[in-house]
């Protein structure tokens, strides 16, 4: 009986781990709101940008990393980006929580890359109901390529012992319905 119970216990624990990972995945509307950055996909989502002229770059707070924190006065959760000085082990941080880029879950065929420089990214907290997410959005293109953006998003843990898992998505935001609606509204106002 013990031999039969062991595989069942392993299967049960694997199911529990995969359900936990699935439960942490941000909803598509949250991912897409981060990619749009200045327009939420639905009215129940609130995007709070973290910006301001005051930034913090610290090479001593985390050994082996250079830590960048944007808009110190508008950043009560201590959101930041840490660049590894040895290799490609960068992470997004929210207070003491870390989401590592090399462990990020890609939502598509693209894998996350280091953000260089971290100041080029846009940072925000995206909230829907009681759930809060950290959002780091980049747009490296020019002209029409400027609408192809990438986003790193993670649910901010509510429990002190929880971990933070990053999800990564690349998309052309011109293809979002909300983008077309915004553009049509702007044209009507002219």
Structural account:
The protein is of the alpha+beta class. It has one domain. It contains 3 helices and 11 strands; from the N terminus they run ααβββββββββββα. A hairpin with a 2-residue loop joins strand 8 (122-128) and strand 9 (131-138). The longest helix is centred in the first third of the chain and has 23 residues, at 2-24. It starts with a helix and ends with a helix. The model is unreliable at 1-6 and 8-23 (pLDDT under 50).
Key terms:
single chain; 190 residues; alpha+beta; six-stranded mixed beta sheet; five-stranded antiparallel beta sheet; 24% helix
Task: Sum this structure up briefly.
The protein has 190 residues and is of the alpha+beta class. It is built from three helices and eleven strands.
Proportion of β residues? Answer: 25-35%
Helix/strand-derived class? Answer: alpha+beta
Give the tally of structural domains: 1
Alpha-carbon distance between the termini?
76 Å
What is the number of beta strands?
A: 11
C-alpha geometry? globular
Which stretches are poorly predicted, pLDDT < 50 over at least 5 residues? 1-6, 8-23
User: Strand order, biggest sheet?
Assistant: 1-8-9-10-11-7
Average pLDDT, all residues: 83
Oligomer: single chain
